[in-house]
Amino acid sequence: MKKSIIIICALFVLLSCKRENEYFRLNDLSEDTESWLYELYVMTAPSSNLDTLAKDIASFVRKNSFDKVANKQYYGMFYRETWNTPRDYEEDHSFIGDIIADHLNDLIGVVKKERGEWSVEVKIRNNPDEWKRYFVTDSLTIIFNRDPFGN
User: Fold this and answer.
1) What are phi and psi of 131, to 5 degrees?
2) Residue 14 belongs to some domain of the structure
3) Is-contact 74 117, C-beta < 8 A?
4) How many structural domains are present in the chain?
5) How much is the pLDDT for 126?
6) How far apart are CA 65 and CA 63, in angstroms?
7) Under 8 Å between Cβ of 38 and 115
């Protein structure tokens, strides 16, 4: 009986440990041109807190792509890892194929740099059409609690 309780407690502790988030680039779907860098990533354990998720995505882009886009536009799409959108996802262009556009339910974040302006948007859970936009500095730092009217 003691062994059963210990095993159950150990399993509970292991299962309740927070997984570290990892990013996997979908190389076949990402593209680097002279004027654009377009990247798609799958995240293994994204935060459920929208502010933390936006901060994590912005930090990741700042560390991994920021220097590559000094004179380019940037578009990064971030998907949560699911059975339908695994970390090694590849599109299937057969007659009844599977393309990344079929997985918009798993899309959770977008980072853009257009005309020198950075923006970070994260999808509000349970509503695929509603997004939260964050103000971002030139160095991709999220500005929290900023009045959108400049007051």
Assistant:
1) -125, 150
2) no
3) no
4) 1
5) 67
6) 6
7) no
Domain membership flag for residue 7: no
Q: How confident is the model at residue 5 (pLDDT cuts 50, 70, 90)?
A: low
Residue 10 lies in a domain: no
Q: Which residues contact 5 (CB under 8 A, 6 or more apart)?
A: none
Is the pTM higher than 0.85? The answer reads no
C-alpha atoms less than 13 angstroms from C-alpha of 102 in its C-beta half-sphere = 11
CB count within 10 Å of CB 72 equals 16
pLDDT in tens, 63-91: 998 888 888 999 999 999 999 999 999 88
Domain extent, residue 95, equals 19-143
**With bands split at pLDDT 50, 70 and 90, how would you rate the model's confidence at 122?**
very high
- CA–CA distance, 28 with 52 (Å, rounded to integer): 28
Q: What is the SS3 string spanning 83-121?
A: CCCCCCCCCECCCCCECHHHHHHHEEEEEEEECCEEEEE
